[in-house]
């Protein structure tokens, strides 16, 4: 069956030894009815010839941004628009880095920056290059930007080393493309997810407030992961400096009460993850004007309890199927977390030790314990994005097996 009938694919062939596999991929895509055009990078042309690419695509091969004929005949903007999908194979570390940073210094990278079409990339490189923090950062960034990344395979690499970094088999890449066009919706498609994130600000007067050290990074990463899994994702966020992850519907609030209202107003949800560091108290009598220090007297303030967003969700008659809370503790982590799970009537608790020495508050990594009704898992230290993906993966598994 021609699964890719009339789909226009613009292949961008990077400069890696795996470039030769791109030739076979062109055939397999065309076998499915796709119309394939190709851009060959300078590096790519060191491995395969424009002539072999042109013979297989049956089209002119584009390779040079400043070639006057290419620009007058086609132009990189049009080239990027006249495709339904841009497919980068092999995506070298260099090309991924350029994509992640918006560098446009040749036809391939300029087209990738200029496009308004979906982009899929199949990285291939040496195992150490793949594992480098810089490459991992770029991959995370690209995922966050909505680029579909096909994970490289494990095995013997062209350089003789063994590990992760091989270009996946050509059929695997072709199947990713087919799934993309079939409208593969993601495991959480059709479900609605809530994430609360960030700190809250509790005003004292018009210029002062009480806050905490939460950065919101973990919650934002979870919201991003939900969206990538296809969930309709509502992120209710306290004040942060973070960018809204792709595909997420963000509602900004300041105080715990505002957060409570936003969460209640947007009910129902299928799953809720409350990761916000909500202030347990607000100032009882906010001053209408800036409090003056002239009197010389100490200030006495009364704190009033804030509503508990998580507990109220868990008790709601429109309770989400899965309610997950966080327990940020500086001592007796697991004991407190277990107790919190029961007291707040939530299904799972993610426990993390936020004592100053861990650097978790505000940092990019997290070490968590996941406490469910069935047991406890200690997850190794990982980036907040990786923790988020693993968590959402677990959530998807749970919802699939408990429909
Ligand atoms: O009670 P504690 O603040 O330690 O509980 C933490 C969990 O409860 C987190 O999931 C947090 O988002 C949630 N919470 C809440 N509303 C509050 C206080 C905490 O949703 N007012």
Our measurement of the CA-to-CA distance between the termini, rounded to an integer number of angstroms, reads 33 Å
CATH architecture of the largest domain: 3-Layer(aba) Sandwich
Our count of helices gives 15
Stretches with pLDDT under 50, minimum 5 residues = none
Number of strands: 22
How many domains would you count in the coordinates?
Answer: 2
Shape: elongated
Question: Structural class, from helix and strand content?
Answer: alpha/beta
Read across the widest sheet, the strand sequence of neighbours is 13-12-9-14-17-18-20-21
Quick one: CATH superfamily of the largest domain?
Answer: CoaB-like
- Fraction of residues in helix: 25-40%
Description:
- The chain has 403 residues and is α/β, with parallel strands linked by helices.
- The protein folds into 2 domains: 8-184, Flavin prenyltransferase-like (Rossmann fold), CATH 3.40.50; 192-401, 3-Layer(aba) Sandwich (Rossmann fold).
- Helix content is 35%, strand content 24%.
- It is built from 15 helices and 22 strands.
- The strands form 6 sheets. The chain has an 8-stranded mixed beta sheet with strand order 13-12-9-14-17-18-20-21, with helices on both faces.
- A hairpin with a 5-residue loop joins strand 7 (153-156) and strand 8 (162-166).
- Helix 1 packs across helix 10.
- The two termini are 33 Å apart.
- The relative contact order is 0.09.
- The model has no long low-confidence stretch (mean pLDDT 91).
């Amino acid at each position: 069956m021609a699964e890719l009938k009339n789909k226009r694919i613009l292949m961008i062939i990077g400069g890696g030894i795996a470039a030769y596999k791109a030739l076979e991929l062109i055939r397999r895509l065309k076998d499915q009815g796709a119309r394939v055009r190709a851009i060959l990078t300078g590096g790519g042309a060191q491995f395969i010839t424009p002539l072999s690419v042109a013979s297989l695509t049956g089209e002119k091969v584009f390779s040079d941004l400043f070639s006057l004929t290419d620009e007058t005949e086609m132009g990189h903007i049009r080239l990027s628009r006249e495709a339904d999908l841009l497919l980068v194979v092999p995506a070298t570390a260099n090309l991924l880095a350029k994509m992640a940073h918006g560098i446009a210094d040749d036809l391939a990278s300029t087209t990738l920056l200029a496009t308004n079409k979906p982009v899929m990339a199949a990285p291939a490189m040496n195992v150490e290059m793949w594992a480098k923090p810089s490459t991992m950062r770029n991959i995370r960034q690209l995922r966050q930007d909505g680029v579909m990344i096909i994970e490289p395979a494990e095995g013997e690499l062209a350089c003789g080393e063994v590990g992760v970094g091989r270009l996946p088999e050509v059929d695997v890449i072709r199947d990713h493309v087919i799934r993309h066009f079939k409208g593969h919706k993601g495991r959480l498609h059709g479900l609605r997810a809530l994430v609360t994130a960030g700190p809250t600000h509790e005003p004292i007067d018009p210029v002062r407030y009480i806050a905490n050290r939460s950065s919101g990074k973990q919650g934002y990463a979870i919201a991003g992961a939900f969206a990538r899994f296809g969930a309709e994702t509502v992120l209710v966020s306290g004040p942060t400096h973070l960018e809204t992850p792709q595909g997420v519907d963000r509602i900004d609030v300041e105080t715990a009460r505002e957060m409570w209202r936003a969460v209640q107003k947007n009910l129902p949800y299928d799953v809720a993850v409350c990761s916000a560091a909500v202030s347990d108290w607000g100032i009882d009598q906010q001053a209408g004007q800036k409090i003056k220090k002239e009197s010389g007297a100490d200030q006495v303030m009364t704190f009033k309890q804030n509503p508990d967003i998580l507990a109220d969700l868990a008790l709601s008659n429109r309770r989400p199927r899965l309610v997950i809370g966080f327990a940020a503790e500086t001592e007796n982590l697991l004991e407190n977390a277990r107790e919190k799970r029961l007291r707040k009537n939530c299904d799972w608790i993610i426990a993390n030790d936020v004592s100053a020495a861990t650097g978790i508050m505000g940092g990019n990594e997290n070490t968590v314990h996941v406490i469910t009704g069935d047991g406890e898992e200690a997850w190794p230290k990982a980036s907040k994005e990786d923790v988020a993906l693993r968590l959402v993966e677990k959530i998807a598994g749970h919802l699939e097996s408990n429909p």
